[in-house]
Amino acid sequence: MIHGTVEKGVPANNYQRYKFFSGTSYLIGGYTLSLNDIENGILRSNRSSMATIYMTPFGVSDPRMKIILPQVDPRIHFALNCGAKSCPPIKTFSWDEVQSQLNLASNAYLENDDALIVDVENNSVQLSKLFEWYEVDFGSNKLEVLQWVRDHLAEPNKKKQVEELLSKGDFTVSYLHYDWGNNSKEEE
Q1: In the chain, domain spans
Q2: CA nearest to 87, candidates 43, 141, 129
Q3: CB 47 within 8 A of CB 56
Q4: Which of the 8 DSSP states describes residue 84?
Q5: CA–CA separation, 86 vs 175, rounded Å?
């Protein structure tokens, strides 16, 4: 993502973002892979998304099918950065510590009020749009998604609030505004 942005510039609208993620490609392990191929094809186990216009990236006979992950690890959504202000922060990961680093990235993102706001009095929770766009990665319904959130929260107060909502069982879920503005550091 960083290299693509340096080479091509920051996409300014949805169409430019689609072209950027589908057209910025790299030769990896003998395969040409776009940013969309890497995220939705490999890391998301060949799942469709809004970014792939709800089509799976690879067809059944595509040779790249043999390199997809067998199942999705939803924590990737807190490790990937698309260059927008609402994205999780950019981090580096090491192969030998990737599991603990993915846990840490998930915990840190969920602590942020840009990702999760719980209102116990009104039986409501507001989640990052990532949970709407990729709901299938977190669970098959909003209850399972909120259970996933609870299980990946480290911050004790928010965790307790989510547990309270889950125990009541009658809660509403809405989604926070996603700021597509450039996440580059502002010059002073």
Answers
A1: 2-72, 98-175
A2: 129
A3: yes
A4: B
A5: 12
